[in-house]
Amino acid sequence: MNIYTRTGDEGLTSVIGGRVSKDDVRVETYGTIDELNSFVGIAISILIERQKYDDLLQQLVRIQHELFDCGSDLAYVRKGDRNEKVQLEMTEQLEAWIDQFQEEAPPLRRFILPGGSMLSSQLHVCRTVCRRAERLVVTMARTEEVNAEVRRYLNRLSDYFFTMARVVNARDGVGDVEYVRGADVFRTTEQ
Fold this sequence. Notes:
Elements: E1 12-15, E2 18-21, H1 25-50, H2 54-74, H3 88-104, E3 112-113, H4 118-141, H5 148-171, E4 177-178
Antiparallel strand pairs: 1-2, 3-4
Helix pairs in contact: 1-2, 1-4, 3-5, 4-5
């Protein structure tokens, strides 16, 4: 099988149920999810090189498969063809991981900037690309029918990346980079 087909040379690409322009919002949306998946792959590579945090590694590998499911759900152009893969249970699992991580991270008082360790910084890149993907799903939903669980999943996934970035810094003994020009904006139970 050749990797190239030449079928997209005129600016069209195949989706499930037809062909659309390569700059169609559908293609832009699942393309951004693919970009996010690549950044998650970098985070996985960092974890493998460090030979640390098997729990995080297993979660990220699972998330890569779930991101592929998100892209698949968004690739359907005909309503009757849908076989939606992204389900509520996937979002609930992210929430459980976030709750677990929040117990491990130090209290949050100020806004934080991406940074700390290299892995934490990479997870912040994942967070921001995830937010862009979520915005594109919202845009797409204005004109196309989409699986609403994909939007919820991406919303929660960006929270997961934020929390995981903070946990990685905590586990590595590296402080979060606080935004110093702002006041304390988050209340903790200690106050």
